Amino acid sequence: MAKYIVKRIALAIVTIWAVATLTFFLMNMVPGGPFLSEKAISPQATAALEAKYGLDKPLGEQYVTYITGALHGDFGDSLKQRGRTVADIIKMKFPVSAKIGGISVLISLILGVFLGSIAALKRGKFLDNFISVVSTLGIAVPSFVVCTLLMYFLGVKFRVLPTMGLLTWKHYIMPVAALSFYPTAYIMRLMRSSMLDVLGQDYMRTAKAKGLSGKAQLFKHALRNAILPVVTYVGPLLAYTVTGSFIVEKIFTIPGLGGEFIGAIQGRDYTLIMGTTIFLATLVIIMNVVVDIVYKIIDPRIKLK
Hints:
- By secondary structure, the chain is mostly helical.
- The protein is 76% helix and 0% strand.
- Helix 11 crosses helix 12.
- The radius of gyration is 24 Å and the shape is flat.
- The protein starts with a helix and ends in a 7-residue tail after the last helix.
- The mean pLDDT is 84.
């Protein structure tokens, strides 16, 4: 286990470096610049700003300077939000995104596992067919369509929920619902398929022959093995939640990291783009390592190499 963790940490560091390097050079290949959108700015002022932030230096030198600073936790100052560092922006905005994302992941796992198990136990019946239709819709419909429908019906037509901000608990309902709709549907299908496979195993027939109750069969024997594919999906789920929240935050005007990231791309705020990309990539990679370790704990038969 220790050897595997060390190996994964080393691979994670290489992956983060690769993401940072690709982002840096691809970002600088895009036409335009962070100061071209400034109103009534002279060429002399543009040159002064570029000199201030080191953008007048050769690209290779800029890269080495930035990576060296990032290794020490310094992501630089925002080019568009004067007087604010990238680290401060992430520190202030990420908790908002993390709260929405965390609630969405928790709801997705609970509902997905529960409804998927019910669909498997009620195979071929009305409830199974209904859950299958809902899960298919959840996978097929993009999150921005779900956001639009929720906002129109619950926010505009019936006026039962607020459509912007995060002032009260009611403000969380639509963003969380929109963000968790797809992963819940996917987990439902994944859990149903896995549960059907487990219910057909010999040890499940043995448990039934011993006279164990349905609940004991489900929770003591079937669920622990059937949930393994869902645990594997938690890593990609976290990645989807992080990236998918950007669209949801923008639509519902949520002051999270997603809005800052989109604004940074539109305004060519290079340092903020780099800082948020490295931060989110690190977060996703760490969670994938944690998921692999949890996978081993749930099923000791799995060998980590």
